[in-house]
Batch of 4 targets.
Target 1
Amino acid sequence: MRKSLVALLFAAAVPTLAFAMPGGMHDGHHGGKNAPHMFQDLDLTKEQQREMRKLMGEQMRQRQQITQRYLDKLPEAERKAMQNDLDASREKAHQSMRALLKPEQHKAFDEGMKKMEEKRAERAEFLKWKADRDQKN
C-alpha cells in the first residue's frame, strides 16, 4: 500500500513540476505562443489558453484533494516515512537536474530551487494555520 501511495503522490506532483520548471506551463516560451507545449499545434486563442490552464489547474487541485484523503487515513509513522522518501526523491532529482547544467547555469538553478523551497514552506505554514483554525471552529 505504501508504494501505491508514493506512486500516487508522485503522479500528483508531476503537474506541479511542469508548472515550476523553466519552460513550464506558464512562462510563454513555446515557439512564440502562450499555450502549454502539448497544445502548441492547436493554435489556441488567448481565451482558449486561459480556459485550458483553468481546467488543468482544477484537475491538479482535484488530484491533490483525492491524494490527501488517502494520506489522512495513514498512521503518522507511515506519513512521516513517506514524506522522508519524497524529500529524498526530490533532492535526488534536483541533484540530477543540476548535474545536467553548465556551471554558469548553476546559480540561476539554485536560486530557482531556493524560491521553490520558500514557496513550499509558506504553503506548509498556511496549511498548518488553516488546519489549526478549522480545528478550533
Note: Residues 103-137 form one domain.
Target 2
Amino acid sequence: MRSLPLWLRSGRVQTGLVIIFILAVCAIFAPYLAPNDPNEQNLLSILTPPVWVDGGDAMFPLGTDSLGRCVLSRLIFGARVALTVAFTASIGAMIIGAFFAHVAGYFGGWVDWVIGRIVEIWLSFPPVILSLILMVGLGTGLRNVVLAIILVDWTRFCRVLRSEVIVLRRRDYVSAAQLVGFSHWRTITREILPGTLPLLITLMSLEMGVAIIVEAILSFVGMSVGSETAAWGQMIADARQNIYEAPFNLIAPIFAIFFAVFGFNILGDGLRRTLDTRLTQTERT
C-alpha cells in the first residue's frame, strides 16, 4: 500500500474505482455478458419474475418486462448509454467551464464581470428544465443529450474554478512568471492550471454522476435515445405500467442509477480529500 500514490490509498477512491470498473466492463463487454438480446421480445414470457422467485426462468435471471425483453440484458446494455454520456458530457463541460474560469479569474476586471454575469444568468434556469428546453430545440438522440448537458453544466465548473484561479493568481510564483516575461497563455497553463487540476478532476468525477441522472430523466420522458436502444431511464418509464405485477422491473434500473452515481460521487469525494492540500493539512493537524 505504501508504494501506491496517496490518492489511491483512500478507501473512497478505491471503492469508486471498483464500481466504475464494474460498470465499464459491463459497457464494453455487453454483447458477451448479456444473456439475451436486449431488444428481443418473447411474448410468451411477459413479466417473468426474477429467477429466485417462484415462476422465474433461468433464461431471464432478473425477469422480463411487459414486452418479454430480458431485464438483465437491458441493464447491461444501458450501462453503455450511461457511461458514454457521463464521460463525454463531463469532459466537454469541463473544457468549456475551465477555459472561461481561468480567463475570468486570471484577467479579472470587465472580463471577469462579463463572464460572471453570463454564468449567473445561465444558473438562474433550473438545470433539468433547461435541458428539456434544449432537447426540444436540438431533437432527440444521444449526441444531442451530450450537447445539452454540456451547455447546461459548464457553469458548474466555471463558478467553482474561478474563485480558485483568483487565489492562485495572487501567488508569488505567478507574479514571478509574469516578471520573467511569460505570456498570459504560458502563465495560465504552466503556473495556474497545475494548481487547479486537483479541483478540476474532483469536479469532473462529480459531474459524471450528475450527467447520468440527467440522461436518465431525459430518457424517462422519451427525449434521449430511441426505443431501440436500452437506457435506464427508459426502463423506469416502461416499468411504471406494471409496478404492482413486476416491481423488480422498476427497482432494477433505479438501483443501477444509484450504483453508478454512488460510485462517481464517492470517487469525487475521495479525490477531493486526498488531492486538496488544504483538507489534507487540516486533517493532519
Note: The chain has eleven helices and no strands.
Target 3
Amino acid sequence: MTVFRRRIDIIAHPVDGTGEVRAALEDDFHHFRVWVRHHEGEVTAIGGEALRYPFSMCPQACGPLQLLLGMKLDRIAHSVTRQADASHQCTHLFDLAGLAIAAAARGTHQRRYDINIGRRIANRTRATLICDGVEDLVWDVDGTLIEGPMPYSGINLREGMARWALNTLNEEVAEAALLLRRCTLISMGRAFNLDEEIHAASTALCYSQQPVRAEQALRMKGSTLDFTHEQLKLCAEDQDWLRQRP
C-alpha cells in the first residue's frame, strides 16, 4: 500500500553571538534545503537550494526568499506570511524558511518531523505526524475534512484551518498541525500521473504556478519517488550538510 512520506530535519548552529539554522525537507515530490543566519533577533542572511522539484522554474524560487531579510525572529513559523506574499514563493521553501526562523526564535537546537499519509480508500486516509520520534498527531480524514479526533473533528483542511490553528492551539502544536495539513493535501497528488503534465498549472498559488511563468515551468519527469518502503532514505543525503558549521 502506497504511503506518502515527508521528513523535515532542522539543526541550529550558534556562532559567536550570531546563529545559523539549517533545514532540509524531502518527500515524494520535493527535496529542498534552506539556511537562515540571524543576529540580535533578526534575519541577516538566507538561502535555499532545490535538489528535486516538480517544475523547471522551481529553483528560481530560492531568490524570493530574500524578502525575509530583516524579519524579526518569530516563534510562529507561519509568521513569514506577514513578511512576504506566499503565492509568489515556492510553498515548500517558504514553509521550510518559516520553520527555521521559528526554531531560531525558540532556541531549538534540533528537530525532526516525520509525516505519513496513508493511501486513500473511498476518499479516506489516516494522517500521522511524528515529532522527534514521538507520535504527536493522528487524524482520520475524509476528503479534506478531518473526522477526528477532537479538537480537530469537523475542521476542513481548505477552509480557514490556519487561522483556527493559530488562534486555538499553542505555537508548537499549531506548527505541527499546519505541517500535517500541508502534507495531507499534497499527498492527493499520488492519485495522478503527474508526468502527464506538460507544465505547471496557471493557478497563481505559488512561484511556478504564477500565470506569468506557468507555461515556462516545464514538468520534471521522473521527479516523483516512492518512499513507502524506504523511509530511511528521506533526507539521508542532507545529514552532513545539516551538521556542517558555518
Note: Residues 143 and 228 are 21 Å apart (CA to CA).
Target 4
Amino acid sequence: MATASAPESSLLSLLYRSYPAAISPDATELDLAQATPKIFAHYTYTDEDAASVKQWLATIGALTAAYAKNDTQVIETILKELNAHLETRTTLLGAKPSVADIAGYAVLAPVVEKWTAEERTGEKGYHYIVRHVDFVQNGSLFALRIPDEEKVAIDLDDIRFFPKAVDPKEEKERKKKEKAEAQLAAQEKTTVVAGRTKEAVHQAPESTEASPAVSNRDKEKKEKKEKKKEKQPKAPAPPAAPPSPSLIDLRVGHILRAINHPNADSLYVSTIDCGDAPGSDNTSVDEATGKTVRTVCSGLNGLVPLEEMQGRKVVVVCNLKPVTMRGIKSAAMVLAASPKVAEGEDSHAGPVELVNPPADAPAGERVFFEGWSTSEPEKQLNPKKKIWETFQPGFTTTDNLEVGFDSTQVPSIQSAGTAATGSTLGKLVAKSGGVCTVKSLKGATVR
C-alpha cells in the first residue's frame, strides 16, 4: 500500500499530490503544524485549533515511534485515546479538517488494513479509528488523491459489536455523583463524635461500644424522624394528563445546509437551526453563522434532491432520544410525507415530500395540532413509553394538502380526540398562525 509503506515520506507525497496549490512539489521540508490553514484555506482556525493540531501531530509522532520500537504498551494507550476522542467527533478537531487527520491516516492506514474484523469492530475493537480512516480516504472534506487500489478496504456493514454511545449528560451525572460520594466520604472521616473522630471511636482499644450519650442522641433523632413521617399525610398523586400528540416537541426548523453522509449512501447530514438556547443539550455553535444548531441525519438521500435540503424551513421533531447514525450523532428528525402502503410493502420507496411550515414562522416556533395543544412537550421522549410510535399513525395529509392529526387512527384516544376538538382531525399549525402543508401528496402518512 503506497500511502503507508513509509509514513513520513508517504505523507508528504500524499499532501503534494492532493493539494498542489497549497504545497509545492519542490519543497523538501514541510512544517505540518502550519500547513492546515494553507491546505484548507476556506476554513477559519483559532489559536485553540492550532494548538490542538500541534498536540495531535505530536501524539501521532509518538505512535509512529512506538510502532518502530514495537512498544505495544504505548501503542495500545495511544490507540485507546484516539479511539475515545473520535467517538463523538468526525475529525480530530470535531468537524473541521486538519493535516493531523491526514497524518494519522498515513500512519494508521497500513495498520487498519492488517487488522482482523474483530480488531476493527469487535467488542474491544477500534470502531472509531476504522471509521475515521475510511472517512479521510474517501470523504470530499479532504478530497485526497488516492487511487482506489491503494485505499484500505473497509466494509462498513461488517460490524461485529455495536458499542453503546456515550451520553454526555449521563457522563456528567456520573462524574457529579462520584464527586459527591468522595466529598461525603471525606466529611465522614473528619466528623467529631463525642470529642473524637469516628475513626478514633472504632479504633479505641478500651471499648468497642458507642458511648451512652451518642446512643441516646441517635435514638431521639430516629424517634423524631419517625413521628414526623407519621404526621405528614401522603400527598395525593396528581391526576395523569390525558395522552396527547402535544407531548411531541414539533418546531419550525431552518436548514442552514445539508451534505451527503460520509459513511452512508442513504443519509443526509443537515445543520438545522431549531431555535434552541445557547448551550442547550444536543446542540453546537455553527461556525459560519454563530447560531445554535442541531446536527440531524435523515434517510432522504435518493428521495429528496440535495438541493431541496438547502436553506429552507422544515418541521422537526426535537425531543426524540438522539441516536448515532454511522458515526454521526443525530439530535432531531425532519418530518416528511410519503404515500400510505399496505402491510409488508416498502414504506421507504417514495415519493417523499418535506412538510412545509408557514413561510413567516421563525425557526424554533412551536408547531402543534389544533385541539391538542393543552400538554407541554416532554423534554425528551422515553423510548419505553413509545409516545412517538403511539401518535405517529395519526399524522396524515388531507385532500387540501394540509398536514393534520387523525385521532381515529390512534385507538387509545379516539373518544378523547372527538371530545377535545369537536372533530377527529386537527390541523398542524404554527403558534403564530398558518397551517403546515405538503406539495402534492394527499392522504399520505407523515413521519
Note: The first strand starts at residue 192 and ends at 193.
